[in-house]
Amino acid sequence: MSPSPARPQLYDLAGAQPERRFSPYCWRIKFALAHKGVAFDAIPWRFTDKDVIAFSGQGRVPVLVDGDRAVFDSWTIATYLEDGYPGPSLFGGDGGRTATRFINAWADTVVVGAIARLIVTDIFAVIDEKDRAYFRETREKRFGTTLEAVTADRDARVQEFRQSLEPLRAILGVQPFLGGEAALYADYIVFGCFQWARCASPFQLLLRNDPVWAWRERLLDAFDGLAQKAPGYPL
Ligand SMILES: N[C@@H](CCC(=O)N[C@@H](CS)C(=O)NCC(=O)O)C(=O)O
Q1: Which pLDDT tens digit goes with each residue over 171-189?
Q2: SS3 state of residue 177
Q3: What 3-state class would DSSP assign to 9?
Q4: For ligand 1, what atom is nearest to the CA of residue 134?
Q5: What is the C-alpha to C-alpha distance for residues 191 and 74, in angstroms, rounded to an integer?
Q6: What residues are in contact with ligand 1 under a 6 Å CB criterion?
Q7: Is the preceding omega at residue 62 within 30 degrees of 0, hence cis?
Q8: For residue 23, which atom of ligand 1 is closest to its CA?
């Protein structure tokens, strides 16, 4: 048996270019690992590489392999890191943990869903050739129409999306991060959605005078530009 790798290994969704990493859920975890000061390897993974992560018992990323443990689902990984690693808290205590869980649910339903409907054709353009048929089939089934029809009226719909960010904008108008003076996992959850879009699509989600734009800039610079350095489109 080969020895377990010393650094945690993160299976991370990649496009046709292996450096193009665009999963919103994986970005949350890369930020959570950086927050805890844990060095890790991010292994490029494609949608159809189901056999590669079959050991985890399911077919989605992120999957974190830490010694002999394999942990999947971003929320489960975040709580695993919080409970198992020293270093600054991801949640800011127990009350913070449950409030963050609400933000996790809001991001996964409202934010991910809305962004997907604005950029899904751009995602299709950056994914690996071998993933194309699978992606089109599964997503068209989910949306009930073609990918092209989903994004056809996005220039009009983006206004609605910007409006839906009002709860985020309200809090970022009075403090620099959802976590307060410093970023916490709550910030990484929502930021991961914008970083997903930045890495996969040239479509402009935010306006420059939006407090959400300035917050996103702060997080792009965080951890020595972890997100900024990743291949993506100019904002
Ligand atoms: N609830 C999961 C969602 C993970 C997820 O949906 N990951 C996507 C990549 S962004 C995936 O692996 N999709 C594989 C597929 O669609 O077959 C989490 O929070 O980790």
Answers
A1: 999 999 999 999 999 999 9
A2: strand
A3: strand
A4: 17
A5: 14
A6: 13, 23, 25, 47, 59-62, 73-75, 138
A7: yes
A8: 10
